[in-house]
Amino acid sequence: MYHAVAREAHDPNQLCVSPERFAAQMTWLARRGLRGVSVVSLLRAVQRGDAGGLVGITFDDGYRSVLHAALPVLRRHGFGATAFVLSDPPAPENTWDEGTAWPLLAADEIRELAAEGVEIGSHGATHTRLTGLPHRRLAAEVADSRAALGEVAGGEVQGFAYPWGAMDAAARAAVAAAGYTYACAVSTPYRGLSTLALPRAYVGDRDGGFELALKRRLHKVNSIWKGRFA
Ligand SMILES: [Zn+2]
């Protein structure tokens, strides 16, 4: 799970990975015979029983740096990825976090990413926390964003990523009702693991090979362990 690929002096939430670090992390995958793919491709491979060596790569929020800094690196390796973007951001930059007003992808840039083979998923309409939302607002964030992004990207939107990773049973039901085939959480509770609450591992700027190897192993163990209760 990535957010921005940029060098930012002020990054209190550690959402940025520098372009150099990102390139090194993708090289780390490639050298181990691993291949970065979109989540939808990963899930199809899992269904076929053919997901060995595949790693889902995701970017939340839809920062412009995904297009300019991450895409060239992905392309170099022939990797895919999923970008979870907002359909109706409150401003052209991040306004939901304090002091990190980084520019977001415009509609034509989202289209460009899609044309380059990056899967476009929804991160909601406005980056609103879904837990506890009234039914109608929940539907607007989840269903309306799917329809809007489908038009922007020019294809069916399959995936959703919960803003702040926050979800409950009502949010998962809204995602299913809206027609998504999967949704990404951050960490999932016991009994919560499903294709509507896929766990992800945070990858940051401090993560070198040792940390990536550890995170990969922990992610696997965590998924298998929680899968027993799903
Ligand atoms: Zn987000």
From TrEMBL:
Q: Can you give the residue ranges of the NodB homology domain?
A: 53-230
Q: Which superkingdom, per the lineage?
A: Bacteria
**SUPFAM superfamilies this protein is in?**
Glycoside hydrolase/deacetylase
Classification via InterPro entries: Glyco_hydro/deAcase_b/a-brl (IPR011330), NODB_dom (IPR002509), Polysacch_Deacetylase (IPR051398)
Compartments annotated for it: namely: Secreted
What UniProt keywords apply to this chain's record, in alphabetical order?
Signal
Do the record's keywords include Ion transport? no
Q: Does the keyword Zinc-finger apply?
A: no
The protein here is known as Polysaccharide deacetylase family protein
